[in-house]
């Protein structure tokens, strides 16, 4: 007999999206199909981070169609960190989960995180068979190694965008990173606050449509600048 997934009291789910017109509808449809098995009381938040395509219009259409869905818009692109911060600010439920708008994860695997959240304050994924090119995987390994060296996080995939939190633990965390460094800052500040963090493997899939921006040199340089700024603060 298949084991029934543990249910949460209430859950906020948000998706940071920048130019994800080809993914956002599919992602929300998947969430609305899966989340009733996880929680009776849930909300889905699309954070449209100043997209230049039809992401915003699609998000608005989904919010009008489904009462559990809301769309939040940045007039101008604030960066990945800005989108994550906005997402957290708009969450109202007991637990908070987010994944990226690129659709490279199977939302069904949120159940793997849910099974552990009673034992830990934060449960985060690490990518199994990461579907990125060699250079991107190498850069990610080097970044995670540097982060673990400086901040002693002890995680194997700091930027894996598949994370579940107890919202009460986020209440006193103030984030400043506006770029890709936000995942590192989030985990570092939670760990410094005494939160327990556990990782679990989740599958990673090729991007079907849209373009990645994480390899952009400006994104990388911004991340390093924000990392060393955070290191000085936490030290």
Tally of DSSP helical segments: 8
Query: What is the CATH class designation?
Result: Alpha Beta
Instruction: Identify the overall geometry.
Output: globular
**What portion of residues is helical?**
25-40%
Structural features, described:
This protein is of the alpha/beta class. It has one domain: Spore Coat Polysaccharide Biosynthesis Protein SpsA, Chain A (Alpha-Beta Complex), CATH 3.90.550.10. It is 38% helix and 19% strand. The chain is built from 8 helices and 7 strands; from the N terminus they run βαβαβαβαβαβααβα. It has a 7-stranded mixed β-sheet, with helices on both faces. Helix 1 links the parallel strand 1 and strand 2. The longest helix has 18 residues. The termini are far apart.
Short structural summary:
The protein is of the alpha/beta class and 235 residues long.
Write the SSE topology:
Elements: E1 11-17, H1 24-34, E2 42-49, H2 55-65, E3 69-74, H3 80-90, E4 95-99, H4 110-114, E5 122-128, H5 134-151, E6 162-166, H6 167-170, H7 182-192, E7 197-203, H8 217-234
Parallel strand pairs: 1-2, 1-4, 2-3, 5-7
Antiparallel strand pairs: 4-6, 5-6
Helix pairs in contact: 7-8
Keywords:
alpha/beta, Spore Coat Polysaccharide Biosynthesis Protein SpsA, Chain A, 235 residues, single chain
